[in-house]
Amino acid sequence: xxxxxxxxxxxxxxTPVDPRVLAAMxxxxxxxxxxxxxxxxxxxxxxxxxxxxxxxxxxxxxxxEAREIVLTSGAxxxxxxxxxxxARFAAQQGSERRRIVTLATEHKCVLESVRDLAAxxxxxxxxxxxxxxxxxxxxxxxxxxxRTLLVSVMAVNNEIGVIQDLAAxxxxxxxxxxxxxxxxxxxxxxxxxxxxxxRADLLSLSGHKTYGPKGIGALYVRRRPRVRLxxxxxxxxxxxxxxxxxxxxxxxVGLGEAARIAATEGVLDAGRIAGQxxxxxxxxxxxxxxxRVNGNRERRVAGNLNxxxxxxxxxxxxxxxxxxxxxxSGSACSSAEVEPSYVLRALGIPDSxxxxxxxxxxxxxxxxxxxERAAALLAAAxxxxxxxxx
Length: 390
Prior knowledge:
Elements: E1 7-8, H1 19-25, H2 27-30, H3 42-62, E2 69-72, H4 75-92, E3 99-103, H5 108-116, E4 123-127, H6 137-143, E5 148-152, H7 166-175, E6 179-183, H8 195-198, E7 202-206, E8 217-221, H9 249-287, E9 292-293, E10 304-308, H10 315-321, E11 325-326, H11 342-346, H12 351-354, E12 357-361, H13 368-389
Parallel strand pairs: 1-11, 3-4, 3-5, 5-6, 6-7
Antiparallel strand pairs: 2-8, 7-8, 9-10, 10-12
Helix pairs in contact: 1-9, 3-9, 4-5, 9-13, 10-13
């Protein structure tokens, strides 16, 4: 890390590209820049082979077959394709199933996709979560019936880091005859994922949440029993007709390399990151009495801390007083909004406390020195903000 560079603790917004990923991508920009669909010549065939090798790595990360992976521009597109594609295909086939079940704490692109479908005659059901951010299985059970088409529940929450019980949710969805989709953008590479164990029909992934490049992601689409989707847009019919458009070979290769690294090193990564998180939290709690961790403290991804600071100070005031740290006050996809986090509201946290909350994302390249230094800087910033407030 360059001297005087801010300490980066916003790994839920995006992760840095792993140097090994960057090295894997570079030749496909500089040496073989061919279109991977131009299989009439040698360079095109080589690009196609690289894309297919990467697809296999992505599939391996989630226990899928390579041909079940549809490459997209990211998790937002994958989520839209999963939810809208499944709903519209079912409607085209005359299905009477119209209910789509999701959680109040889902990513905006999931919530908005579900709400958009209301205008097409579907029934959105947005379930609450408990104060710890977890879904009560009985609440889901009560929402499921023979009208349910799809259940969409995020694997790991992007703000509070809690891990939902995907196996139980998938089993209940199957029992109701519904499809099960999970947004696994924050989970892939951080926790073990197996589409067979969780009985997922659809699963969304993002490159830039797994130390890969921005602009690339994937959607797992189950083959047996076969899941069918209506495409979001028209084109040349690439990606089994689900997602037309020329594939960006360098980005696909980067996604594949990131998936390979995550599959081989993810468990070790998680253990080390959890250690850095605990070091950071212990140091900060010593300096900030009354600091609160939001979300279940056991069922959470290793690098996440969602922290409410005491003293009635605004999180933005703490951030202004700590320019040497990169953290956020909520989801990067909603950070331009003035309103407090809808995720924290769903946990029953008052707006005044939600405004005093920061999201910490510790990652692969966070050092123990970074963790200790960041805790000291945040504690000092909080004291400065409290003093200014009073």
